[in-house]
Amino acid sequence: MDNFQHPVPGKLTTAIVICCYSDKRWDILNKAIESAARQVPAADEIVVIVDHNPALALRLRAKRFETPVRIVENIHPPGLSGARNTGISVSRGGVILFLDDDAVSDQDLLATLVRQLEDPSVLGAVSAIRPLWETDRPSWFPDEFLWTLGCTYRGLHPGPVRNLIGASMCIRRDVFDHTGGFDSGLGRTAKALPLGCEETELCIRASKALPHGRFVFEPSSGSDHVIPADRATWKYFLHRCWAEGLSKASLSLMAGSGEALASEKTYMTRTLPQGVMRGFADVLLGQPSGLLRVVALGAGLAATAAGFALGRTRAALTRRFTSVPARALEPVE
């Protein structure tokens, strides 16, 4: 079905792309699609990319949505990067809003981010991404590490940012025309927690190719990102920090340490120390959870640093880093 609304002259055309892979997320996936359909004003097209799960694609095609939704199966390698690249290829909007399949968006999310892109120097924008805990939020979990859950973390300020966060990000199609798609050597898959940072790598590559452009964080609208119980654990927290360290090691080899670690230097020298001070201040106010957050800050930093060190050591020993370069994406009918 061709559900693309043909453009009005001078108006930015919009596409919403939602990537999904698991039947286990059926209920929240439907809420995510419904929130995309409720955007005011409406997107010109909504495309749902199913990552190598034919049964899920069939189930989605059988469902009646209030707004036309195009269901497409991933034609690229399995994983989030491949699914997003498929979404870029099959959609036609001049601006693409990528949403996670477990995030429910505010009604004005698309409009808020598109307003940022009316400035021709803005290449992309990201909204606030709020954690929606399925269980009680752990008292030890620090706001500074909400990035481990794909959410906006304490220390991220409105305005220009190095990179976007994938759960709720809007990017000009021109960015992909100039730089290619997401690197398929990065990005999560259904079977593992491999190298991430695919959004960071894309944004760094785009900033090099389009040096007068910038990416921005606009927190006045956003999405609620579901956090299941199995992610509200120490095990997941430390595993995710470890994976981030490995990812940053690979990214530093691909993009150079300066660009790959620029934001992390500020994060380590300002954001984390401020978090530690807040934790100890809470302890003095009679809140013992403050000490737990201090421990989590230290443990998260240690796990991330260990992953980074291991990733760099492996690269030095093998002198090889395997990645599939992102290339220009051809439209798919």
From TrEMBL:
Keyword Transcription regulation in annotation: no
InterPro entries given in the database record: Glyco_trans_2-like, Nucleotide-diphossugar_trans
Keyword annotations of the record: Glycosyltransferase, Membrane, Transferase, Transmembrane, Transmembrane helix
Entry keyword Glycosyltransferase: yes
One Pfam family in the UniProt entry: Glycos_transf_2
Superkingdom as given in the UniProt entry: Bacteria
UniProt name for this protein: Glycosyltransferase family 2 protein
UniProt source species: Rhizobium beringeri
